[in-house]
Design goal:
2 copies of one chain form a homodimer. The first copy, chain A, is an alpha+beta fold. Chain A has helices at 11-22, 39-52, and strands spanning 2-8, 26-29, 32-36, 59-65, 71-77. At the A-B interface, strand 1, helix 2, strand 4 and strand 5 of A face strand 1, helix 2, strand 4 and strand 5 of B.
């Protein structure tokens, strides 16, 4: 399955969210990760995120499609995040 | 079609992006809009965004599925954006 995660998370937790998500997915934009996950990985990612964030203060949306072929992606401009070695 | 737009746009342009997108879509998260669009509206939205943003400085991603049934959406926490009358 192909997954897009967007988050609005308190500054105290945002690095933990990023470090965690980078184990599984690609950092695309300041608050956006995307990537191909198995259903088991997806469950692990959701569980991990729920453990890191504060439900009362943060907001995370998980968008997923069963197969990437259902998703069209178009971009204007270029990614500003360093996908290399920021964290 | 169902469309998700995520953006990382300079502070001078971000209000214009939001004002523009709110004519067509739902403001879900700080830098995320989503909504059902006709293909013609989708083209209009992409064109409008290209006119507002600076390709060298900004980055906008358009994710779309032909039918919303292909997209699964799960949320942790709640939206922090006022969908009412901020702008």
């Amino acid at each position: 399955m192909y997954v897009i995660i967007v988050y609005d998370v308190g500054v105290e937790r945002v690095n933990n969210v990023r470090k965690f998500l980078r184990q599984y997915m690609m950092w695309k934009q300041n608050s956006v990760f995307e990537g191909e996950l198995t259903p088991a990985e997806y469950e692990r990612v959701k569980k991990g995120i729920k453990e890191i964030v504060n439900k009362d203060l943060d907001f995370v949306i998980f968008y997923s499609v069963r197969d990437r072929k259902y998703l069209k992606v178009e971009e204007v401009g270029e990614s500003k995040v360093e996908t290399g070695n920021i964290l």
